[in-house]
Amino acid sequence: MYLMISTYLAPLETVDEARDDHLAFIAGLEERGLVPSAGRQDPVTGGIILLAVDTRAEAEALIAEDPYVLRGLAEYEAIGWQPTRGVLADWKSPA
After folding, report:
1. Tell me, what CATH number does 75's domain have?
2. In angstroms, rounded to a whole number, what is the distance separating the alpha carbons of residues 71 and 18?
3. Which InterPro entries does the UniProt record give (predicted)?
4. Is residue 74 a contact partner of residue 66, using CB atoms and an 8 Å limit?
5. Using one digit for the tens of pLDDT, what is the confidence trace for 27-43?
């Protein structure tokens, strides 16, 4: 799994203009079983998407299609993560 941690590159009002498209993008990944969880940071300076993929290359290729990235509104850092405790420790994609 990869934590995709975003930093907004534009004012929040500008980012929010693309939010519906971003959420539709995330919904599409959820339908494919690739996103166990996602949400905004607090304070709202970016967000985190948990991608259920095996490689950094897969994570970066998927996130490159995010409307926030395509419009230059956010950049992401990919951090590999293997949950070993809690509800995600044995998580399997429903897809």
Report:
1. 3.30.70.1060
2. 8
3. Dimeric_a/b-barrel, YCII
4. yes
5. 999 999 999 999 999 99
